[in-house]
Design goal:
L-seryl-tRNA(Sec) selenium transferase, 449 residues, 3 domains, alpha/beta, PyrdxlP-dep_Trfase, SelA-like, L-seryl-tRNA(Sec) selenium transferase activity, Aspartate Aminotransferase, domain 2
């Protein structure tokens, strides 16, 4: 009973000088939580003493945990360029500075300054994308999953969509093509076998209820060996002959020629636009290297129908997404790929990576055992499944810490590396030059632990 009576009153407790200048309602709320928790612990005999300083410390800790940003900068030393868990593609600082004025000012998002009346938000991006791809029109939604759903709901509700069994994809977060198709109102018609689908399979499935021939990029997996699939250009021809829509969900379709022979594994938007398709969709934050967005390109008549779907109001993007995406598309159009960090990292030579690894090795040689290793990594984000690219990593061992301990110690300092062959590696395919100083400081701090 003595301990219970010793619990301070809320109104007196919050007068502590350490709470000066802080948000009083939050301090009151956290104080009530801390004191209630203390009361319960006393009653169940798990606490036999406490101090007011200790209680103040708990309240301040809860306050800081709430006020401090949950999202924070990390150093990606995994080597995975499009790392879904680490925010996928980076935005170049110069690009972000250009967009900052738009974000902090009133702007012409839906205002036509020439006509002095309401305009269309998608007009800002359509000109530059249409010039790059040679398409008739473009529509931007908040991600490629939204693009798939909007297209199916607009053109195939209560109608049939033909898809190869080998392309019934499930990607991260249990996003499954069959489930999306069902929820959109479309009826899935599976054709072919898992490993082999022929053009005749599509031909035999077409009837008067068919709305669309759909092709889906195999993100996160590949089918090899005794296998075959129908080229999209063949589906385009077949769709036109039967007066139905052809649509390719390209996933992470790219807009430039990829290095390391990766073009043969990843669909090129530029290549397929030459075939004059009805509709294509792809992600903005994968191999394009921009913000999260679903980019739909194709024939003007179909884009116009998509814009009239009431779902678009829920899926549309804001001014910041449009502004950054426009800047990135301009960079690609002008061949300035160094302005897009994802592409810059992808095209960096192993000689450049080795030079950066040497810089770090020399800086921490007196406190760590280091070895420069030529190895492989993946691009990530569901792109180029089962394909690797060359990279250079630095194995780091401080004191006698094992690789799991090393990984944890660096992770606690916001540096995310990887373990390979029982070694903790910092992969320079994704480490930025500006990151090296922070890694040096972290290594020195770990050596002093």
């Amino acid at each position: 009973m003595f301990l219970l009576k010793s619990i301070p009153k809320v109104d007196k407790f919050i007068e502590n000088e350490k709470f000066d200048g802080l948000c009083t309602p939050l301090i009151v709320s956290f104080t009530q939580e801390v004191l209630q928790n203390l009361r319960e612990n006393i009653l169940n005999n798990s606490v036999d003493s406490f101090s007011e300083d200790e209680l103040v410390k708990r309240v301040l800790q809860k306050y800081e945990e709430l006020i401090n940003p949950s999202l924070k900068k990390l150093i990606n030393a995994t080597g995975v360029i499009v790392h879904t868990n680490l925010g996928r593609s980076l935005i170049d600082e110069k690009t972000f500075d250009k967009v900052k004025t738009i974000a902090t000012s009133y702007n012409n998002l839906e205002y036509d300054t020439a006509k002095g009346k309401r305009g269309e938000r998608y007009s800002h991006i359509s000109k530059v994308i249409c010039k790059l791809l040679g398409c008739e029109d473009v529509l931007i939604v908040n991600n490629n999953a939204s693009a798939v759903f909007l297209i199916l709901n607009t053109f195939a509700k209560k109608k049939e969509v033909i898809v190869s069994r080998g392309e019934l994809v499930e990607i991260g977060g249990s996003f499954r093509v069959p489930d999306v198709m069902r929820d959109s109102g479309a009826k899935l018609i599976e054709v072919g076998a898992t490993n082999k689908t022929h053009l005749r399979d599509y031909e035999n499935a077409i009837n008067n209820k068919t709305s669309m021939l759909m092709k889906v990029h195999k993100s996160n997996y590949s089918i090899e060996g005794f296998s075959s699939e129908v080229e999209f250009k063949e589906l385009i021809k077949l769709a036109k002959e039967n007066d139905v829509i052809d649509y390719y969900d390209m996933g992470s379709g790219h807009l430039i020629d990829l290095p390391y022979g990766l073009d043969q594994y990843e669909p090129s938007v530029l290549k397929y636009m030459q075939e004059n398709p009805s509709l294509l969709s792809f992600s903005g934050d994968k191999l394009l290297g921009s913000v999260q967005a679903g980019i739909i390109v194709g024939k003007k008549e179909y884009i116009a129908k998509l814009k009239k779907n009431q779902l678009l109001r829920m899926l549309r993007v804001d001014k910041i997404t449009l502004a950054i995406l426009e800047e990135n598309i301009k960079s690609i159009l002008l061949g300035q790929i160094d302005d897009i960090p994802t592409l810059k990292m992808l095209f960096s030579s192993t000689d450049e990576l080795r030079e950066n690894a040497l810089t770090l090795q020399d800086a921490i040689a007196d406190i760590a055992e280091c070895e420069i290793i030529d190895t492989k990594t993946v691009i990530g984000g569901g792109t180029t499944p089962n394909r690797t690219i060359p990279t250079v990593a630095l194995s780091v061992k401080i004191k006698n810490y094992k690789q799991n301990k090393m990984e944890k110690l660096f992770r606690q300092r916001d540096i995310i590396g990887r373990i390979e062959d029982d070694k903790f590696l910092l992969d320079f395919r994704t480490i930025q030059k500006d990151d090296i100083a922070q890694i040096i400081d972290a290594a020195k701090e770990i050596s002093d632990v």
